[in-house]
Specification:
Layout (H helix, E strand, L loop, with lengths): L1 H22 L2 H16 L8 E9 L5 E10 L2 E8 L3 E6 L4 E6 L4 E6 L1 H16 L5 E7 L3 E7 L3 E3 L17 H16 L5 H16 L10 E6 L2 E6 L8 E3 L2
Parallel strand pairs: 3-7, 4-8, 7-9
Antiparallel strand pairs: 1-2, 2-3, 4-5, 5-6, 10-11, 11-12
Length: 248
């Protein structure tokens, strides 16, 4: 009897540990962040706003793209990347990598600039919708991140996100176009055949291509160029593709 009770207790502890690891995994943390943003954005309201969450698709070149949120209103197509990071974040708009410092500074992590990451998302959406200059690049950090050291107007805290609903821009999208863009993207989402696992595999593939001098955004060749701050690698398909890579 005692042995059976002890066995049950051990099993419960093991299950709790496994569930705890899943709850704190990067994937589940990211999903929780996306759920917070989706709640603030709200539902589609015909003629006023259109919302698509977790848009995963593959283009004609076989490149895959996963966009956390697309919010469409008369002021633009807001493409939103959500980051559920903790600690203090340091970064500038044109930097390739940003820095995460976890208190009290014992752990420092580098991660790809989410503004640049989102620019690739916008590039793919622009090609699919065959339209330019209607997109707004937005990166949202949840409240457990200190973003005061980020130099960019594209970055919002989760508490500021609601302001984009009434934030004016130089963009004007008529109601019929808003609905057209929404239906096209909804069709893209519903017809997608790629899985999350395949998408992760494509990310690794693009990283390998980048090391081989291939543009991960459009597949063009990366060529050496001269800029105001020195030399850098730029896509051969410029100005259609504006991907750049710093020289290490």
């Amino acid at each position: 009897m005692i042995f059976a009770v002890v066995t049950i207790v051990i099993v419960i502890i093991v299950i709790a540990v496994i569930l705890g690891k899943k709850t704190h995994s990067p994937e589940s943390k990211g999903k929780r962040g996306e759920n917070y943003v989706a709640k603030i954005l709200g539902d589609t309201i015909i003629g006023e706003q259109y919302v698509i969450n977790d848009l995963l698709f593959q283009n004609e070149k076989g490149q895959s793209c996963q966009i956390d949120h697309v919010f469409i209103n008369k002021f633009g197509i807001w493409v939103i990347e959500t980051k559920n990071y903790a600690g203090t974040i340091y970064g500038q708009e044109n930097q390739r990598e940003w820095t995460q410092v976890l208190a009290p500074g014992h752990e420092i992590n580098k991660f790809y600039n989410p503004i640049k990451q989102n620019a690739t998302h916008i590039y793919h959406l622009s090609n699919y919708l065959k339209v330019k200059k209607v997109f707004v690049n937005v990166v949202v950090f949840l409240s457990n991140a200190d973003i005061t050291n980020i130099a960019s107007g594209n970055v919002y805290s989760i508490n500021e996100l609601h302001t984009i609903k009434n934030q004016t821009t130089d963009i004007t999208i008529p109601v019929d176009k808003m609905e057209y863009f929404y239906n096209k993207l909804l069709e893209l989402k519903n017809n997608a055949t790629i899985t999350k696992t395949e998408h992760i595999g494509n990310i690794y593939k693009m990283q390998q291509q980048l090391q081989q001098g291939i543009c991960p955004r459009c597949g063009g060749k990366l060529v050496l160029r001269n800029g105001k701050t020195g030399q850098f690698y730029g896509c051969s398909n410029f100005p259609n593709c504006k991907f750049t890579k710093r020289i290490n």
